[in-house]
Amino acid sequence: MRSSYTYPIGTPGQKWGDSERTAWREQTTIKREYQHEVVPKIKALEQRFDVEQYGALSYDPQRFPLFCIKSKSWQPTKPVVLITGGVHGYETSGVHGALQFAAEEMEKYSEHFNLVIAPCVSPWGYETINRWNPLALDPNRSFYANSPAEESANLIKLVASIGRDVLVHIDLHETTDTDESEFRPALAARDGIEYIEGMIPDGFYTVGDSENPQPEFQAAVIESVSKVTHIAPADEKGEIIGSPVVQHGVINYPMVKLGLCGGVTNCTFGTTTEVYPDSPKVTDQECNDAQVAAIVGGLNYVLTQLK
């Protein structure tokens, strides 16, 4: 369905310039604090894991340091697992689900894997509850060489510093009602194109890599999450957010081509989770639990393949 909605910034049909991007940034406000809600949870893990600062955002380096959590005593015989959250800062359970996994499950899986968790890739977006960074750039479309998004560029450097291939990458996201009420209209306005209204699916789903879909791995993630929350059904077209459902609760994107975080490594097993926090059927805690269940389900499956 086409929408007659006009975004309040910019001229319809014209791409934004610097003035429009500045106007957009100036209407954002701080709604929660990274230093109060996220950093203390990271610091609380310092006795159990190696907490490292891998960068900082130049917008305010003191306010926005970037941290990763690594399992202790890395061993070259163990495969590497990367878990990322908060690439889109407004997607809350991606951040707190990653931290919950670290607090509750990471030690157990450290017996089998070298783990790296970057729980909040976009702390400015976390504070302003935004998909974009202050330059009106989407970090999750900016994972490529010489990225203009600091959030993406810093994570790319972190991955390079690992010095080894990553076997598993699980990127934690949400699909929210504001994707349609705010973020997609803003995207259309920024790019000077018409906004065409979409539909938000009610439930959890995953996005695999169309170049390496790993359907059994995706199925294991879906099965694990289904014990915590409901899985999104396909719409009447057999799609979720405009993409064909290739198996229960799963769609695929070309990760590298689109500059997605899911393409930041050459992993064998990768998935992007999509929790739906606006469903009346779930609580915030259940959303965090769903992210943990996705990681656990994926890692348990990989362990069966390593035997």
TrEMBL record:
The lineage's top-level taxon is Bacteria
Q: Which terms does the UniProt entry file under GO BP?
A: proteolysis
Q: Provide the Peptidase M14 domain boundaries.
A: 30-307
What InterPro entries does the record point to?
Answer: Peptidase_M14
Q: Which GO terms describe its molecular function?
A: hydrolase activity, acting on ester bonds; metallocarboxypeptidase activity; zinc ion binding
Q: Which family does it belong to?
A: Belongs to the peptidase M14 family.
- Name the record gives this protein: Peptidase
Q: What is the lineage of its organism?
A: Bacteria, Pseudomonadati, Pseudomonadota, Gammaproteobacteria, Vibrionales
